[in-house]
Amino acid sequence: MTDKKAPPSSRAPQQARGRERVAAILDACARLIVIEGAAQLTMHGLARDAGTSIGSLYHFFADKQSVLDALGERHIQALAVITEELRAIDDSVWIKESAADVIARLILPILQYSERHRDLVSMICPLDGVHRLSSPDLRLRIEDTYARMLELRLPNATTDARQAYVLALIALPMGAFQTAQESSALSRQLLVEEIPRALTAYLEALERMHGVSR
């Protein structure tokens, strides 16, 4: 079914009932992304899954892309909260804890969020190559958090080396995100168990290489 022509802009809900309806639409969008993929979404399908009328859907969202954008923004805000909590951790914690505990602090909250919200994984690494979620500002804050941790734990490493390590710590989980989409049965093991194990081994190897002993 072809989506009808959308109005030029979306509306933010002003009342609790409207906010609940928008939340239901975004929840439906998340479910359908996991089941069908973002490319297969239609406004009529979203309305049907959300239990709302097509008119109500268009009241709040101009088109499918605006729904995807709103869902992505909801994820970005949630991840921003997690990142700010990490940035508030005292330096002494990053210095004293074991590599395993540091990695758990850094990535488990994000990985556990990703496990609960499988659509986020699909938006970060879309199998269809479209509607990729991106937030340069959030990524910079995450990179800054990782760089701070590495500066404290690897004081002898050069700035360029630490930057490479930061990029590796962020990039290494991406392959697991892709595999988690392709094999839902292994999703929890990949996201919550194997990624931390691999990154812990990586951080421990870096510390040995730079003569750090804990």
From TrEMBL:
One Pfam short name: TetR_N
Alphabetical keyword list: DNA-binding
GO terms, molecular function: DNA-binding transcription factor activity; transcription cis-regulatory region binding
Start-end of DNA-binding region: 42-61
UniProt keyword DNA-binding, yes or no: yes
Domain of life: Bacteria
HTH tetR-type domain sequence ranges: 19-79
Record protein name field: TetR family transcriptional regulator
